[in-house]
């Protein structure tokens, strides 16, 4: 008679036998461009995901998300619609439920020259999004396929969310995550682990802000004194904002983009500065927001200028608490057979796990494969970690279904 342990062993062997297919699939997925603003590419990726999940008997349901609001190059607030999120679920009425999530957008937009994969050595594959996060998408899909194929976790329910906007802060899918957080016991997210294999514990909070300076246009030769140079005032503001960096406190500010100006014989009446800030905790978050508002308020006292601030924190700081610690211990147990010495490390990066923690759902968010050089043309993934990562999720959820792990 076949036992649950027999089925678990068979599932692990099945995943190992699919290593080549999983790697080939990763190359195909990575070479589908799906930048956060590339809605055509995102839809192609969504269609491919739905087809590949269906091959395992898993149905991804398109699920509408809200419109995204951004400041355009003219300083105006505009709204645009991204593609639907994709949601799959099994046994939604189960008393114990797990939320799994990862994004299918990347930082490589349609005009990126980084479009193809290439082997760097026998295991390391370079390519756009191979580790952030199309490798994580594969780990999640194959783990769930094994669980359902071998009937390993029928005592629990699960929901999988694939969202199209994480790389820009998940402005469209945040509401979906908030809705689902209250209906699950804990979360598993498939962002990549760190290049040395360490997994993330605490995360800094992250916010994106836009400062819009409007001045007064004038002829730079005939009557420059009647103009109000928006670029000059923004430059002064940027100096003040940069001084909000406090490395001892853990607050880092990066002014990442400047827009404005035109003909050199015209005083520019519009300048836009875009910045990202990272903070260690909620107190530092509140302090930075107050300081930034004061800088903008003072700038508005300049005659002939109007200064506006847009944006906010899209990922609150994530601090490991007792519930998260319990999930970490369960993850360690699931990986112990292949990697007995897991190391947990805080990071300045943010992800959707930060939102879910803020919404009350404890989670571990670096269950994807090992890789490095994220967000660059040197991005790579260690393909030898794909199957072990999927196997660890199979072991984790099987143990939880049997009541062997206290999680969440």
TrEMBL record:
Signal sequence extent: none
Keywords, ordered alphabetically: Carboxypeptidase, Hydrolase, Metal-binding, Protease
Top-rank taxon: Bacteria
Residue ranges annotated for the Peptidase M20 dimerisation domain, each copy included: 203-301
Protein name: Carboxypeptidase G2
InterPro entries documented for this protein: Bact_exopeptidase_dim_dom, Peptidase_M20, Peptidase_M20_dimer, Peptidase_M20A
A GO term, aspect molecular function: metal ion binding
SUPFAM superfamilies: Bacterial exopeptidase dimerisation domain, Zn-dependent exopeptidases
Regions crossing the membrane: none
Enzyme Commission number(s): 3.4.17.11
